[in-house]
Structure formats: structure tokens, C-alpha cells
Amino acid sequence: MCGIFGYVGQRDDTPTLVLEGLRRLEYRGYDSWGIAVKRNGTALVEKHVGKIGQASTSLPASTIGLGHTRWATHGGITTLNAHPHLDCSGRLALIHNGIVENFAELRQALRARGHVFRSETDTEVVAHLLEDELRGAAGTREALRLATMATFRQLEGLNAIAVLDVQTSTLVAAKNGSPLVLGWGDDGVFLASDASALLEHTRRLSFLADDQLALLASDGAWLYDVRSGEELRPAIREIAWEQQDGGLAGYQHYMLKEIREQPRVLRRIAREGQAQAQTLADLVLDAHGTYLIGCGTAANAALSGKYLFSRIAARQVSFATASEFAYTEHYLNERSLVVALSQSGETIDVLETVRAARERGAYLAALVNVEGSSLYRLADCPILLGAGPERCVLATKSFTAKLAYLLLAAYAAAGRIEQGVRLVERAADEIEAFLDDPRAAQVAELAQRLYRKEHLYLIGRGPSYPLALEAALKIKEVSYIHAEGFAGGELKHGVIALIEADTPCIVFAPRDETQRAIISGAMEVKARGGCIIGLGPDAHEAFDHHVPLADVGDASVIVNAVPPQLLAYHLCLLRGYDPDKPRNLAKSVTVK
Ligand code: F6R
What we know:
- The protein folds into 3 domains: about 240 residues, 4-Layer Sandwich (Glutamine Phosphoribosylpyrophosphate, subunit 1, domain 1); about 190 residues, Rossmann fold (3-Layer(aba) Sandwich), CATH 3.40.50.10490; about 140 residues, Glucose-6-phosphate isomerase like protein, domain 1 (Rossmann fold), CATH 3.40.50.
- Helices cover about 35% and strands about 25% of the residues.
- The protein has 18 helices and 25 strands.
- Strands 3-2-4-1-10-9-11-15 form an 8-stranded antiparallel β-sheet, covered by helices on one side. The chain has a 7-stranded antiparallel β-sheet with strand order 5-6-7-8-12-13-14, with helices on one face.
- A hairpin with a 5-residue loop joins β13 and β14.
- α14 crosses α18.
- The chain is globular, with a radius of gyration of 25 Å.
- The model has no long low-confidence stretch (mean pLDDT about 95).
- The structure holds fructose -6-phosphate.
């Protein structure tokens, strides 16, 4: 969601530096953006609605500034509502991620004290509140720090703020919930909501914990506890992870690039992920109750884990959507294991849920792609997916990476990890072959037939059921076609009422115990005029179109996840949309 980038130091190209930082954050999803810098003692602000695209900034040279990409929550998508927001005096330019839950009361009180509001946002109240706290205080950094702490303590909800104070030439930032990272550069200090925006400048990072405040100036940066005011020693982490994504590397879109990276990611997990998978397996074997949780695509991967552990290791693990798990956590205790799945490691529904689970004593493992993310730091046992940066808003390679880890862990729990490793390697080979041979073109042709459809249904049974959900999610998110995934067995319990002449229905038909029943379901849809697209190793008369996919045993789920990703990509292009920036979606969902 919203992105934050700031810099103070010796460089005077801050406007461009901040703009480039915001470009690095574009993938998070946003609808407007803005930058503020200090020049001749005043805050100069530039704000725009829409994407940054090829824009350059008209702001003059400066050695201090900050910028923001906004994903609208309070107030429409307008230039006035875009951040930064100024206080009445123009001394402070403030940006914010999160939601100030008590903003209405605060705004009312501030208005009564004479403050004039220019936007409809919850953010602007923070600028005016800080202005009030600074009234009568000395024009020093110390006064700014104390006033910001006092301001931040009055905010309800999960928030991160960053302020440019032109009087003291300081950036001050504080967080509770939403992420913030400091970057220690050679010629200045950086601030961002996302480590990946900083890595081109420095790999020396300090992740702010909740209720911490950072003061950044040209001569350094300092960290404090917001509650006690105590100064803290910033822990500096040298980030070694492969986070430079090398740009589009010749691809037209990140989505396609990331789909094609999957064989490499899977081989790496097969090669290097065995110890981590064994650790996860041991935790599951030891626990009294394991709960796999996640949101969106990560939830679909978690649900797959339930099937994989059952069929491979005869082990019961439970699944829950993270946002719902919070309402059924009452039975968790110190013997429970919660395994949270998340690409970003910043999804608020996941973080809130696991924090509550920890309070009940549960042990927390995490399958997470972003090192240093909130979930990564929170987990007792963080397992890095190592899928590399995923810049397309849609999750693709992080999904199959999660499946690979869960499959390896299930095989490890069964004492047969080598077999799991071989299957993941074979899945990588099969995906590579699929992407390079005429079947990929066949999927593009299918998209031609489907892109004008209003509805699309997908069915699968057993391990293919979460795949049907995931494929529907991919198609919905990026092509905006209404797509629904169902458990094949549920067809006759309602869904079949929706089937009309030529309604497309994608059927996952792997060569496993679900094949016969799912084909029966396909026949029933076909009998009502539906158009059947079969995915699986064996052709069948029920299929109007068949995309042949190799049988890779339990790893077929990994292979079968890929053709729908490619289909979604082509549907999106044919409908004239940008696959990397789907409307209304954000890469890290950091507000509820
Ligand atoms: C789908 C997608 C979302 C995310 C969900 C969770 O393509 O990207 O559904 O999977 O928002 O995000 P993470 O995995 O970062 O917790």
C-alpha cells in the first residue's frame, strides 16, 4: 500500500533521489504521489494523481526531502488528498501510512483551536497536531523529537509517519504497525517503508520496531523509544539477500518475468531448502495442533499445505484465512504451532493474528519472502522463501515457492525428503518445458477465446481445489473477469445452476485419486452446454480444449499452478490492462 521514501545528507539531488525511491515502491500499489523538499527555509511540495510513469520532478536541488505513494483510504483520489500534508505554518511536511482511527475527534478539536484543513485525509490531522505540540517549544531537534513523540502517542491505530521539519532540517519518523526502515548510506541517511527501495543505495539497514522513533539529519540518525523517550542503539543488519531484481531484463512485464523465474526458484529450493523444510517438519511433528494461515494467494498455498501434509505424511494440519483465524484462536496454547505464510511479511491481517497467537503462547513459524520484514522478525522460526523480489502486484513465484517448501516439509515429516527434492526438481523441469514449448502458445490462444467472457469457473478436487481458488484469484485480479474456483464436489450443490451454453470451465484433472470424479463433474458441466478446458496429463472426450501437463506425482500441484498464471497474464493484455499494476490492489496490504 502507501510507500514512504526520505533522504537527508550531502547529496543535493534529493528530489530525483526521492522520485526514484518512489518508483521502486510503485509495485506496492498506489493512486497518487507527492514529494516535499526544503529550499531556502521553506517546504516545497509537488503532488500528482495517477502513476509516476515517466514523470520527472520540478522541485529544485535540496539535501533533504521525503516522498509518498498514496493508496487512498480516507478521502478520494485527488491532488489535495495526496501526501505530503503541511501544517498551517508550512514548517512541517508530513507523510503517513496506516489509518488514524481517532482522526475525526482529533480534527474536530484542532478545528476548534483554529487549524485550517485543506484535505479530507486522516493524515493531515497529524501535521496540525504536531504543529500544536511544537507551539512555544524551542526550534531544536530535541523539541521536535519530544513533540513528535507526544503527537504519535495520541494516534490510535497502526501508523507510520515521517515528517520534514524545515526549521531544524530534520526528518523524524515513528511507527506502530506499518513498516519503516533506515538505510545507512555513505553520503546520508535514508528512510523507507520497504527495504527493497533502499538496496540500490545501501545494504546497511535498521528496521524500526513498533513504538520507535528515528531522527535523521545530515550528521547522522538516532533512535528512541516513543513511550519512554529512552535513546536506543540502532541494530544494523547487513542485508545479503538477492534483492536487486535487475529490472525487467528484457521482459515487457514483471508478471511474465516472475512466471518464468519459477523453475530457477524451485531448483534453488530443492537444492538449498532441505534443512529449513526439515526444521518445519520437525516443528509440525512436535506440535499439538498446527495451523497454516495466510491471506489471498498465501492462504491458497496454506490450504494446499493441508492436503500435502495429509496425503504425504498422514499428518493433520489445519488451515485458516489469517483474517478469520483471529476469531477462532481461543484454543491455542504453548503446544500449538502457527505457520504464517506471506510474501511481503507485512500483511496486517497476518501480523495481527500471529501477535495474538503468540500472546496465547503458540510457537510461530513463517514462510516469508522478504528478509527483515515484520513477520520475519516476529517469527520464532522464520523460513526465507528465497524467491527473489516479486515486483508484480500479483503473487506468482512466491506461490509456487511456498508450495515447494510445504511439499518438502511434508516429505521430510514422512522421512522421505529426498523423494520430495526429486519431485520439486522434476516440477521445475516440467514448468520450464511448458513455458518453452507450444503449450505456452496454446494458452495464449485460449486467452483469445476467453477474453470477452464475463464469467469463468474453475474446478478441482483434493490438492487441486486450492489451485482452482488460486487460478480464479489470478484471473480476477489482473483481467477483471469474474472467475470463481470451486471444489469439484460442490458443483451439484449449487454452482451448476450458473452453467449456460458456452460458459467456460477450467478443470484440473491430474492423474491422481481425484481424476475420475473431476472428469464426471466436467461431463456434467458439458452436458449443460459448458465449454471444458482440461489441465492434466490425460486427454478426455469431455475436454473441448486440453492443455497437456506432465504427471509429477504430488508435485503436480506446482506444475499445474503455472498455466493459469500465464492465462491470466494473456487475458489481461488482451483486455488492455497493465498486469503489473492492477486496479485497486496493493502488494503489501498494511491497513485493515
Ligand atoms: C494475489 C496477491 C494477494 C496476496 C495477499 C497476501 O496475487 O498477491 O492475494 O497474496 O495480499 O500477501 P502476502 O503474501 O504478502 O502476505
